[in-house]
Amino acid sequence: MIRTYNPSPGMIKRFGEIIKESGREVILAVNREDRKELVFRDLMMKFGDGSSEIDYNVLNLNFTKMESFLLNTRGQQYVNKIMKLAAVPEQNAGPEGAINAMRTEMKFSAIIPAVMETMMNDVSKMYNSYHKHIVEYSFEDILNEFPGLRDLPNTVDKMNENGHLEWTNYVNHSTLWNMHDEPIWMMMNTKYEQKFGKKWDGCAVWSLEDDVEFTGDWSTFFDSYTGRADLIGYNLQTKPITPPEGEEKWLWIGSWTKGFNKFVQNGEVYWHQEHTVQYSRQLLDLMGHEMKINKVHGISEAATPTITIRSGLKYLNLEHVKNPDLYTWLSGDPEIQAACEKAANNWRKKGKLSLIHPAKW
């Protein structure tokens, strides 16, 4: 499973390589909500009143302003970038369908077809090329599947009229950016059966972020870990359940439901990096039981390894990370991104096998 919502052309190409090389069934799990809401948010920042709140009426009124902006080269480049985030339902794949979808979603009275065709090219290409692999989901889907998420304390200020949880500790932060066990379980159960008309019968599932690169053949990577552990991740460590001085508090405060408390020992939880992670079928079934029956939810970087180890299941650190500085959380740092791309090209030529993150090129 590859989790994505706004892939670059390079990422889309990589999806094809993974599908071709892995020798495994591949699902592209597309977060429909993130793509759509980020479009509106960015448009408001550019054409609205500068706030991050979504106001459909203001967007509609500012269409003339947006259209004028589109007519110059800088505007086309900017809007091309953010429009790639737009929701394009599978049945609307292709430039023409994308244009119609944008008209409907944004409630604009008109859209310049030629510009929109350019804007939506990358997203349309993904849907056209890999539509058999794409499974969409939204936060509403997750909330319906796991109503226990409503029990998250502190971090959740309120649930707005659209059923979205509003986070107090991090502006515009998405629940799904923090909690991945829920969509992963749903993808391999409810959504899988809806998409393919059968139950998933695999023994394990890999979950990759869309900006992870491997400098060798993907089947070599996956095969080397077959059957070795219930959870495979990277950089396993322990951290206190309360935030230490100087740490970003949104990572901790309110990121757990009460049901998670039974897995906390001596005030500590386990923590790991999950850009590339494997769940055994046994672990995925356990996670589903805890989340659906016992309402156990938590930020997955901590909840997944903690539940795994405290339940007596086996954890394994990834062995294909040759340089920790090039497999990192700091995905927004352009210097790190540049270093990752340079290393990926050099190591691939030399036959050096390594995972790299972030690969946003």
Give a description of the structure:
The chain is α/β, with parallel strands linked by helices and 361 residues long. It contains 15 helices and 11 strands. It has helices at residues 9-21, 32-47, 56-61, 63-70, 73-83, 95-106, 113-119, 121-130, 139-145, 175-178, 181-196, 218-223, 281-292, 300-310, 334-350, and strands spanning 2-4, 28-31, 134-137, 156-159, 165-167, 204-209, 213-214, 231-240, 268-280, 315-317, 355-356. A 7-stranded mixed beta sheet has the order 3-2-1-6-9-8-10. Helix 5 (73-83) packs across helix 7. The longest helix has 17 residues, at 334-350. It is globular, with a radius of gyration of 21 Å. The two termini are 20 Å apart.
Q: Which SSEs are present, and which pair or pack?
A:
Layout (H helix, E strand, L loop, with lengths): L1 E3 L4 H13 L6 E4 H16 L8 H6 L1 H8 L2 H11 L11 H12 L6 H7 L1 H10 L3 E4 L1 H7 L10 E4 L5 E3 L7 H4 L2 H16 L7 E6 L3 E2 L3 H6 L7 E10 L27 E13 H12 L7 H11 L4 E3 L16 H17 L4 E2 L5
Parallel strand pairs: 1-2, 1-6, 2-3, 8-10
Antiparallel strand pairs: 4-5, 6-9, 7-11, 8-9
Helix pairs in contact: 5-7, 6-7
Strand content: 5-15%
What structural class is derived from the secondary structure elements? alpha/beta
- Average pLDDT, to the nearest integer? 75
- Helix amount: 40-55%
> How does the overall form come out from the CA principal axes?
globular
What letter string, H or E per element, gives the SSE order?
EHEHHHHHHHEHEEHHEEHEEHHEHE
* Terminal residue distance: 20 Å
Biggest sheet features: 7 strands, mixed
Rg value:
21 Å
Number of E strands? 11
Count up the helices. 15
Strand order of the largest sheet: 3-2-1-6-9-8-10
> Which regions have little confidence, pLDDT < 50, spanning 5+ residues?
34-79, 81-120, 154-174
